[in-house]
Structures are given as C-alpha cells and as structure tokens.
Amino acid sequence: MPLNHPDDSYTLHTDLYQINMMQTYWQLGRHDRKAVFEVFFRSLPFENGYAIFAGLERVVDYLKHLRFSESDIAYLRDLDYPEDFLAYLKDLKFSCSVRSVKEGELVFANEPLMQIEGPLAQCQLVETAILNIVNFQTLIATKAGRIKSVIGDEPLLEFGTRRAQEMDAAIWGTRAAYIGGADATSNVRAAKIFGIPASGTHAHALVQSYGDDYEAFKAYASTHRDCVFLVDTFDTLRVGVPAAIQVAKEMGDKINFQGVRIDSGDMAYISKKVRQQLDDAGFPDAKIYASNDLDENTILSLKMQKAKIDVWGVGTKLITAYDQPALGAVYKLVSIESNDGLMQDTIKLSNNAEKVSTPGKKQVWRISRKTDGKTEGDYLTFDDEDPRQEASLYMFHPVHTFINKTVVDFEAKPLLSPIFEAGKLVYDLPNITTIKAFAKEKLDELWDEYKRDLNPQAYPVDLSQKLWDHKMQLINDVRKKVAKVKTY
Ligand SMILES: Nc1ncnc2c1ncn2[C@@H]1O[C@H](COP(=O)(O)OP(=O)(O)OP(=O)(O)O)[C@@H](O)[C@H]1O
Ligand SMILES: O=P(O)(O)OC[C@H]1O[C@H](OP(=O)(O)OP(=O)(O)O)[C@H](O)[C@@H]1O
Ligand SMILES: O=C(O)c1cccnc1
C-alpha cells in the first residue's frame, strides 16, 4: 500500500487510464505524435435551449502549472511504473496548443468548445481535468442562466455553499453562477477571490438565540446597517413582520432598513400580506427577500401567482444543478498524425446518427444577421475554411438535410480563440465583470425561441458542405473496412 504523499500538484488529477495510455505511447514511440482532441457535449442540460460556457480560467491555471512534481513521480514509482517512463514524465513540459470558446459564450450541442492540439501523450493526460472543470462550471452557469431568465431584473442571490458538493464546488460553482446570472453571493471567500458582490441577511439562529424576534432584530440593528430581518422563525405575519417594523421605526435612518426575508410557508400568500404590512407601516421601499428550495419552476409559479417578492435567494437547486447533476461533455480524438507524418482525421461511429462524431480539426462560426446582430445558427468548418469569404451560406441540418436555408448579408465570427500556443499562454484572461457582461450580451443576441425555459426551439449547429462530405466519406470508409472483417 503506497504511503500518503503531499497534495502539491494537480497533474495527477487524471484517470489512471490516461497514465497507462501515456506509458504505452511512450514505450512504443508514439507519445509525440501530433493529435487533435475536441471537447463537446451531445445534448444541452436541463432541456435548455443553450448552455453558458464557463471553466476556462481554471483550465488555464491548471495547464499553466502542468508539471509532475517530485511527489507525483514518487507516487507513480509506488505504483510500479518503470523508471525510464518516470524520467520522461519528470521532464514533461506542457507544449500543446489550445483554442477555446470564451467564458460567458453561449454554446450548443455537437460543437467544439475547446480544442487541444499537440503531442498525443500530453493531450491524453489533460482530458480528465479539462472535462471535470468545464462540465461542472458550464452546468452551473447554465442553471443560473435559466433561473435568472425567469427572475428578470430582480436580484438573484447565490446561497448554496452549505449544500454544495464540498468546497471546490461551492467556490467554482459560485463563480459560474455569477457568470450565468447570479448578482451576488453569500460565500465570502468566493466574493473575495473573484471580486463578486457579497450579500446576506441573517439566520434563524439569531432569533432563536434571543428567543424573540423584536429582541433579535434590535440587537442586529444596533450592530449593523442595511438590515434585512428574517421574519419567519415563529410566526411571520403575527410576530416577525411587526417586530421588524417596530425596530425599523425605532432605529430610523440609523439602520437603513432594507427589508425582510421569508423562508417558509406559502410564499405567494405570505409575501402579499407582508407587502401590505410594510406599505401600511410606511415602508413601501422595503424589499421582500425569499428563499427556501427555490428554482426556476417555483420562481415562475410564484411570479404567476403575483407573489410580492423583490429579491430571490437560491441555494441547493442552483449550486448542485439539482435536476441534472452532470453535463456530459466528452473529449474526442478528431485527428492524429499517421505513420507517414500526415494528419489523419478520425471518426467514432454509432448506431445513432446524431452520435457519430465529426472528424477533423474544426472551427465554429457564429452566423448572425448584419442587420440586427441576431443569430442564425452555428456553422462548423474545417479549420482552413473561412465563411467570411462567401456571399451566401447554405446551412443544412447535418442529419435531416431537408431542413436547410440560404443565408445572405451575414456576419461570421469564429468562436474558438487561441489560448495556448505550443505551451505558451497567449490569452489575456478577462475579469469576471467583463465575462458576466459578455454572457448577458450574448443572451440578448439570441432569439427568444431558443431562450424559453420549456421546450425551446433547437438551435441550428450545421456543418459546411466540405466537412459534411468528408464525414460521409469517413463513415463509408469505416463501413467498408468493417464489412471486410471476418466474423468468428
Ligand atoms: N405559493 C407557492 N407556490 C409554489 N411553490 C411554493 C409556494 N410557496 C412555497 N413554495 C415552495 O414550496 C416548497 C415547499 O414549501 P413548504 O411549505 O413545504 O416548506 P415550508 O413551509 O418552508 O416547510 P419547512 O419549514 O419545512 O421549510 C418550497 O420549495 C417553496 O419554495
Ligand atoms: O433553500 P435553499 O435554496 O437551499 O437556500 C439556502 C437555505 O439555507 C438556509 O436555510 P438553513 O435551514 O440551512 O439555515 P437557516 O437556519 O438560516 O434557515 C436559508 O434559510 C435557505 O433556506
Ligand atoms: O444571507 C442569507 O440570507 C443566507 C445565506 C446562506 C444561506 N441562506 C441564507
């Protein structure tokens, strides 16, 4: 049994099979063959019409520090990897090129979100961590986008840390939630390290510890400004709200009474009553905060019931992506250097036509109308194709080809930007405010049909004719090859 080792690098944050494949490649002299891998998912999470890409910043940090530490090597030695292979790992320097969609960009199924190109063994090593990061952060950013879409301009506060899948998920989930739609977080560490607004009220424990709403609010108000009182510990309408009002009246401007939070009961009914109580007491500007297992469905329902809620605190269901706990992005080999030194595109077949991978190193182009910037769809090409040179684009569904359109007067923007070139970081990471604003701008450019929460239209992700023909050719080649194989 190996001894414990210090946790001083993320390089072994990978699956054992990656190291095993690296060993095979290295021992048989294949490790430095040039390879291209692409990250994509096959279906959108939550049956949403779009996903919000997040995770690049952490991927960059991970790749920047990708070296096997002494303790990594020592641990692999414990696992009996041979010394010459360990010597190769010890000296390994990340030398891949990486292109990626920007954080906050809207992304769709079956298009490359990231592309890793370089020595086969290195590309293989980084698969697990890249998927781990991108799958989680993109999932949470998308969930936040869904929730924010029903809330509109009212603030969405992220309250989930206590229910998150441990500390990393709380921190990076908070960041992703902020990119996707949250306006502030209760997690002080996340707020501190990322520059996200921190926000919060107080817990039931405060009221319980005083055993009395009035005493508790008074105590809190004597030590804080901008007070929001949690009014549902004993009885919201009879005790909680009257106590909040009394303290607000007594303390006046000294506490800058912001409002009350309700965290239980029928929130449509109660919020209307609370609104009446606050208005009657002369506090029409006091806000009503709500929390308690909220998500986009309960919030939409509360809005339909004309609940008088101004600020929404959402925890568990956002930070854990409760209704879909994982995004299924995959990392697939699309091209590999063959024995003659030329790049050979690869394909993975499936009985399901939608699941057949698209071969070759690609670029994704977002096609939009010049007139109003609204999106027409995404268009996948070989990396050396440039739709900006075309006067019109024939866009057709890659499986149901009878669904097609010809687009003129369009703009085409490439979505994959260079992040690393031969191991060197060439991308200036934007700050979080810029990323969040970018996500909002992209959502504004998307048609409402793709944005609705329930049964959105399928956004077109089409292939250029050249790419489609190549894919069909490879499918036929593989089929012919398979047909020749003798069955036993
Ligand atoms: N008017 C409403 N319409 C739709 N959903 C609501 C409404 N009011 C509350 N909810 C939601 O109903 C769910 C359950 O509320 P429930 O009444 O069981 O909790 P509770 O009264 O707060 O109980 P507990 O004190 O155990 O938390 C919560 O997710 C809450 O957000
Ligand atoms: O419901 P969520 O969307 O997950 O939002 C977070 C929840 O965390 C708190 O409850 P908790 O019972 O943990 O603490 P409390 O005593 O302060 O209510 C808060 O009151 C919310 O109900
Ligand atoms: O500040 C709050 O009201 C808060 C923080 C975390 C969880 N629930 C509520």
Automatic annotation (TrEMBL):
Pathway: Cofactor biosynthesis; NAD(+) biosynthesis; nicotinate D-ribonucleotide from nicotinate: step 1/1
Matches recorded under CDD domains: NAPRTase_A
GO molecular function, one term: nicotinate phosphoribosyltransferase activity
All copies of domain Nicotinate phosphoribosyltransferase N-terminal, residue ranges: 12-135
GO CC annotations, alphabetized: cytosol
Enzyme kind, highest EC tier: ligase
Statement: the UniProt record of this protein carries the keyword Transmembrane helix: no
Any one biological process term the GO annotation gives: NAD+ biosynthetic process via the salvage pathway
Catalyzed reactions: 5-phospho-alpha-D-ribose 1-diphosphate + nicotinate + ATP + H2O = nicotinate beta-D-ribonucleotide + ADP + phosphate + diphosphate
One Pfam family hit: NAPRTase_N
Protein keywords: Glycosyltransferase, Ligase, Phosphoprotein, Pyridine nucleotide biosynthesis, Transferase
PTM characteristics: Transiently phosphorylated on a His residue during the reaction cycle. Phosphorylation strongly increases the affinity for substrates and increases the rate of nicotinate D-ribonucleotide production. Dephosphorylation regenerates the low-affinity form of the enzyme, leading to product release.
Function of the protein: Catalyzes the first step in the biosynthesis of NAD from nicotinic acid, the ATP-dependent synthesis of beta-nicotinate D-ribonucleotide from nicotinate and 5-phospho-D-ribose 1-phosphate.
Family: Belongs to the NAPRTase family.
Official protein name in the record: Nicotinate phosphoribosyltransferase
